[in-house]
Amino acid sequence: MVLIRVVEEMIANKYRENKMRCPTHLCTGQEAISSAVSANLKIQDTVVSTHRSHGHYLGKGGNVDKMIAEIYGKSSGCSKGYGGSMHLIDLNVNFMGSTAIVGNSMPIGIGLGLSSKLENYNNISCVYFGEGCTEEGIFHESVNFAITKKLPVLFVCENNLYSVYSGLNVRQPKNRKIHKMVEGMGIKSFNGDGNNVIDVYKLTNKAVKYIKQNNKPAFLEFKTYRWREHCGPNYDNDIGYRTEKEYLDWKKKDPIKNYIKFLTNKNIFKLEYLKRIDKSIISKSIKAFNFAEKSKFPSKNDATKNVYA
Amino acid sequence: MVLIRVVEEMIANKYRENKMRCPTHLCTGQEAISSAVSANLKIQDTVVSTHRSHGHYLGKGGNVDKMIAEIYGKSSGCSKGYGGSMHLIDLNVNFMGSTAIVGNSMPIGIGLGLSSKLENYNNISCVYFGEGCTEEGIFHESVNFAITKKLPVLFVCENNLYSVYSGLNVRQPKNRKIHKMVEGMGIKSFNGDGNNVIDVYKLTNKAVKYIKQNNKPAFLEFKTYRWREHCGPNYDNDIGYRTEKEYLDWKKKDPIKNYIKFLTNKNIFKLEYLKRIDKSIISKSIKAFNFAEKSKFPSKNDATKNVYA
Amino acid sequence: MPKKRIIKFNEAINEAMVTAMNLNKKVLCFGLGVDDPKRIFNTTKNLKEKFGSDRVFDTPTSENAMTGVGIGMSLKGYYPVMVHQRLDFFLLAMDQLVNSAAKWHYMFGGQQNIPITIRLIVGRGWGQGPTHSQSLHSWFAHIPGLKVVMPSSARDAKGLLLSSIFDKNPVIFIEHRWLHNTTSEVPVKKYLTPISKPKIIKKGSDITLICISYMTIEAIRAVDFLEKENVSVEIIDLRTISPINYSIINNSIKKTGRFLVLDIGNEKYGVASEIISTITIKLYKYLKNPPNKITLPHIPTPTSFGLTKDFYPTYRDIIFEVLKMLKKKTLKNKIPVLKNLHDVPGNWFTGPF
Amino acid sequence: MPKKRIIKFNEAINEAMVTAMNLNKKVLCFGLGVDDPKRIFNTTKNLKEKFGSDRVFDTPTSENAMTGVGIGMSLKGYYPVMVHQRLDFFLLAMDQLVNSAAKWHYMFGGQQNIPITIRLIVGRGWGQGPTHSQSLHSWFAHIPGLKVVMPSSARDAKGLLLSSIFDKNPVIFIEHRWLHNTTSEVPVKKYLTPISKPKIIKKGSDITLICISYMTIEAIRAVDFLEKENVSVEIIDLRTISPINYSIINNSIKKTGRFLVLDIGNEKYGVASEIISTITIKLYKYLKNPPNKITLPHIPTPTSFGLTKDFYPTYRDIIFEVLKMLKKKTLKNKIPVLKNLHDVPGNWFTGPF
Ligand SMILES: Cc1ncc(C[n+]2csc(CCOP(=O)(O)OP(=O)(O)O)c2C)c(N)n1
Ligand SMILES: Cc1ncc(C[n+]2csc(CCOP(=O)(O)OP(=O)(O)O)c2C)c(N)n1
Ligand SMILES: [Mg+2]
Ligand SMILES: [Mg+2]
Prior knowledge:
The complex is a heterotetramer, with 2 copies of chain A and 2 copies of chain C.
Chain A: H1 2-14, H2 31-38, E1 46-49, H3 54-59, H4 64-71, E2 95-98, H5 106-118, E3 125-130, H6 137-148, E4 153-159, H7 178-185, E5 188-193, H8 197-214, E6 218-223, H9 244-252, H10 255-265, H11 271-294
Parallel strand pairs in A: 1-2, 1-3, 3-4, 4-6, 5-6
Helix pairs in contact in A: 1-11, 2-8, 4-11, 5-6
Chain C: E1 6-8, H1 9-23, E2 27-30, H2 39-42, H3 47-51, E3 56-57, H4 63-75, E4 79-84, H5 94-101, H6 104-107, E5 117-122, H7 137-141, E6 147-149, H8 154-166, E7 171-176, E8 183-185, E9 199-202, E10 207-211, H9 215-228, E11 233-237, E12 240-242, H10 247-256, E13 259-266, H11 271-283, E14 292-296, H12 315-325
Helix pairs in contact in C: 1-8, 4-5, 9-12
């Protein structure tokens, strides 16, 4: 969780150096979900994700050096510079890929679930997406197929209230509850506070157990909030689609601060200990940026490679 | 209802003359729905439909001569021979078009609903489709938009258990109830016996009232059964995807026979009176086939017309 | 010498499927109706019985998601074969095809392959009309990362489908409905016909006919008459639409100096235009004549028997155009007339599909 | 004489929208973000404020259904203008576009029109990568019943958008992202620039450059140098990709005898190939040279600054190719180098879109 926060904030700080030359969607504020969901996944379990995938990638254990190098467009990047921030992959930890078209990676995750079923349900396929994705037809096709075929798929919906600058009201009916809607389709579904890392952990744990015990898919909806602009490094509460107050209210629900408060209040860890962890995370992150900056760009001739396998 | 039955059965009888040279999907056995739904629609209300649209077209008051001529490919046809059985239109009664790709006409019906809303909800947009269509993403996109925008759309799902030769089990989860599923999305929904014309009438009446009173969409699901093969004039209970017994059980639920029984038992109409109606319907149908056979084919040069308006 | 075995195109497809599924357990087959009584015009016959319902299965009417499912299976080493009874239905899946399947290998730096094969059937005649008859192969060919295969004989159907299934890239495999019932000699054994390699069907010296899919049949029909008129025709069956290895074509053009492209797609912005452009740019100085093409007219497919009369070009149009290109005169009424009604592959065909 | 009014391309689009919506109450504008703070790169500025949320509205992320909604509105006499921030997203709506919008007028015998306009923006540079930069105009052009418009100047953007909106047919209106910030003189009044009519940007006698969208800008940049080398270039901006009225082009080719097509799409099976094929078939005897084209390479768009260095052709490539076609020698290092980094329209651009 802290690693994700630190990395995202470093990207935000350094984006204006114009060295990370690709559209970049940060997840600052939403870190609890990827962290606590991932904590319930085994390395063999697969993940697919969206445009906003840094957290999912890092949560799954994806290589941080390679991620930053990818955003810098270097050949040492996890996609060798072909993909950029919106196309991450780390096969070592079965992070199978993130893609940039809304809803695009979801059915691919369903296919991964089907392959798992054919191999005796040997692992879970975890599919991350935003609440905007639930408006795409492919979302429903995917959920329907996963239920019909009884696939070991874990759907994780990060409902951060916005799709770019559009609030829920213009996109979904007033009283829509996504977890209720999919229940009507026939999938087991859970719903929780996406900024409470313990909640997320517990619910995911339940969902994973449900999948394992029943060989059926399960659905998680978490409410959360992205702090920064939709795409890019800045804050944008001033441009008018949401209020500063809304942002500040959500900032109070900072998943990290609250978790630290919880841990220290309950005396589970000492603040000092946590600070030491932070330090090591920060140096890991700095190292990643150094690695990226020092790496080479792929050569322009490489562009014609990898078109066909 | 009787007109639809008579016309469909005449098509079936005459199809093997090889004069109706286009894919043709008959609705024999399903007539109660189009009849009783239509009885609740005003002429200004619009309809869109699917590949299996003869009943919807005739129910809405579409011109029977022009429909048969269209199936015969004649220039006197309702689409002047350009469309065939799968592309019917009769603007005089606001039958706005049927199209052949599953789910394709549905969002168009939603657009018609939006135009009605912008004109003070002056009419209802009725959208027919089969249960197979609910597996297409566009179905969910359409329902979601209709609810979000509060459009005066009447969704009519004819659940005849089959999509071509595929039963429900390979396409939808076991306990799927379509009307429940859409309720979860937030739409008012009704469910009834599609072979009972009185039931269909009453439920549609409720749904139409609901739309008018609330300026919101409503959803109808009717269970029913097609007697003949998916596409073409024959029976096909022998080829193995469904049983003769299933068919015979459904045949007992013949919407027309049962309605006649009801009418005569209750002495609402005398059988003789009904027979007179039948006779006039039969002669109307024969007249349509004569009209079609006598009409001319469009000239091959007409094919290059109408590409652009 | 053993007797030649003659089988139908749809049987050859079926044989390729059985062979592939026997060879490799990771070959799958799915799509609407693959296990129904009609078995996709018999091309998926016995598959379910032989290989079970894990490997051969029907699907919901969800073309876009099912394509994604195939991609996901590919990522785990499967070789999915998807089937659509009409190419037109597959328009719902363009996002998965173009934004995922075609680019996956590239955009993740070559780390994964998508060896999916998508069989698309192109309808024709008997009132298939505007939305059951489109052949949009030029769309697929325009997308780098995809391969597009369009056989015209039973023999190639088997060999090319096998190559497509085991090719590491996404392959669009297009079957013309009027080919399913045609026959040719087909070896019983497994064989891989190379993708990207056009085939010379008949040698000749005056003009090269470059044929796509079903048009190869019409080209062959045109030969008899043309030879009688002392025209020596070279027929090349493209077989693969993208990528094309041009060397066979180039040699032919260098020899004949004239060519005519025969396509089953719309006239404009199609594959025929690409081939004309490519050859013109490269072999300009060898050309004796301006090139030409015979395609569908640039209009939607009408439905009526009356409107379709001139819609689909036949050997008659080929003969007429070849003679024109060679500046030979012929009386139109000398060209033999069609044996069938124009909207059926044979008069035995009585619809509806 | 009144002073010329110079405005930006995106302002011209906005002006066309305002003009159209003022002229006719049935003109609508919808799509993701049309009323958000960024207003589609300011092209939909003030629309909601001026015309209200019945006529200007945001939508769910449902590209396919929303296209159908537009078609349904069309059937009731509306003129919907849909907007997609990237063409790539619109791949989800191919069924509605091809199977409905393009064919509706035809398949119902000419009884109804679909006057929908679909604005698609093509991304370039700054790591847009494989799925945020595709220009698939040749797909749309391949479909009879659609019109495809691609202006390259602010002036044409306004006049052509107005024509597109009120055209009775579905029109795909493609805006290249790097044009939004370019400027030209744009009249304040309403004017309709005719669809289908290419425009001569500059007269010349040695060679005709046939340009599509943004490539017109690069062609103009190439002129200075070429004139210094004593090459007289005629520049034609296609403006409409389908259908094309060829008479202006034909006259130019008859004069110059040489042509080079400049496209923003993939190399193969694209619009450049269609134009080369069409001109070669018809004007073969006027050609002094084999034609040629400059396009994107036939590969997906890579993301990295390193990989994109040679991906997008510039005026340098044009100069080089023109000199080659005219068999003139030049030292590559004489051709002026780019003023900006290759992945931005100007160094003021700092992403992310
Ligand atoms: C098919 C498609 N339509 C539109 C877009 C533009 N787009 C990029 S991200 C995004 C927001 C999606 O919202 P959500 O799924 O809630 O994810 P979030 O950004 O909130 O994490 C949109 C609309 C896209 N990438 N793909
Ligand atoms: C997108 C698409 N996929 C497949 C088909 C082939 N097809 C034609 S009708 C049909 C059955 C649809 O079932 P349903 O919606 O239940 O309608 P029914 O035929 O039962 O009336 C199918 C799959 C099609 N026309 N369009
Ligand atoms: Mg969101
Ligand atoms: Mg059905």
